[in-house]
Amino acid sequence: MAGSVLAGWSGQRAWAQPADVAAAEARAPALPAIGVLWSVPPMERLDGTRFEPADTEGRVLVLYWWASTCPFCAVTSPHIEHFWRTHATQPGWLLLGLSIDRTADAARRYLQQRGYTFPSAWVTPEVQRAMPKPKGLPITLVRGRDGRIVMAERGQLFPEDVEGIARFLT
Q1: Left (φ > 0), alpha (ψ -120 to 50) or beta: where does 36 sit?
Q2: Which of 65, 41, 64, 63 has the alpha carbon at shortest distance from 52?
Q3: Which of 164, 122, 159 is nearest to 142 (CA)?
Q4: Contacts of 170 (CB under 8 A, 6+ apart)
Q5: C-beta of residue 76 within 8 angstroms of C-beta of residue 138
Q6: Average pLDDT in the 94-121 region?
Q7: Band of residue 26 on the pLDDT scale cut at 50, 70, 90
Q8: pLDDT tier for residue 11 given thresholds of 50, 70 and 90
Q9: DSSP string across the chain
Q10: pLDDT beyond 90 at 163
Q11: CA 45 from chain center: how many Å?
């Protein structure tokens, strides 16, 4: 689970979720319903470039919340990376990964160590207030060209699930 830390001093390995992460997850909203308008705030990507909501007008937007400590993200992220590399040059769409790691540096290191190139931003408190992460992790949303949600998934996605996003790109 996101934000997990190694707990316990007895030599026993037990994963515990920090209280602040558990509390935030308990307050997290449900997945948005299909057809709901979804706005995205401006934010800085981990590579230093700026994400501007105006850049998404008339385009499909794939949003993917992830964390370096999430085991289900570790399985899904390679599929997201493959999807990005396969479809990156196709016009009319954007991908934005949203790291909920404790620090932007941790997120950058994770992407670099794994050779992931899909565009990602770190979810700052301001971004979280403007666009709360739905309950669960990973979360994958696809927003259609009209700004409405066309796909909302919580949890691990398999290769065929991720590749299925391509149907929204045409």
Answers
A1: beta
A2: 41
A3: 164
A4: none
A5: yes
A6: 97
A7: confident
A8: very low
A9: -TT-EEE-SSS--EEE--HHHHHHHHHPPPPPPTT-B-----EEBTTS-EE-GGGGTTSEEEEEEE-TT-HHHHHHHHHHHHHHHHHTTSSSEEEEEEE-SSSHHHHHHHHHHHT--S-EEE--HHHHHHSPPPSSSSEEEEE-TTSBEEEEEES---HHHHHGGGGGT-
A10: yes
A11: 12
Q: Long-range contacts of range 11-18, CB-CB < 8 Å, 24 or more positions apart?
A: none
Q: b/e per residue, 80-100, with b = 16+ CB within 10 A?
A: bbebbeeeeeeeebbbbbbbb
Q: Which pair of tokens denotes residue 32? A: 């948005």
Element containing residue 112 per DSSP (H, E): helix 104-114
Hey, is 168 helix, strand or coil? Answer: helix
Do 135 and 25 contact (CB within 8 A), yes or no? yes
Residue with tokens 């920090």: 18
Bridge pairing between strands 120-122 and 93-99: parallel
- Which residue type does 17 have? Q
Inter-axis angle of helices 71-87 and 104-114, to 10 degrees?
A: 60
* Reported pTM: 0.86
CB 28 within 8 Å of CB 134: yes
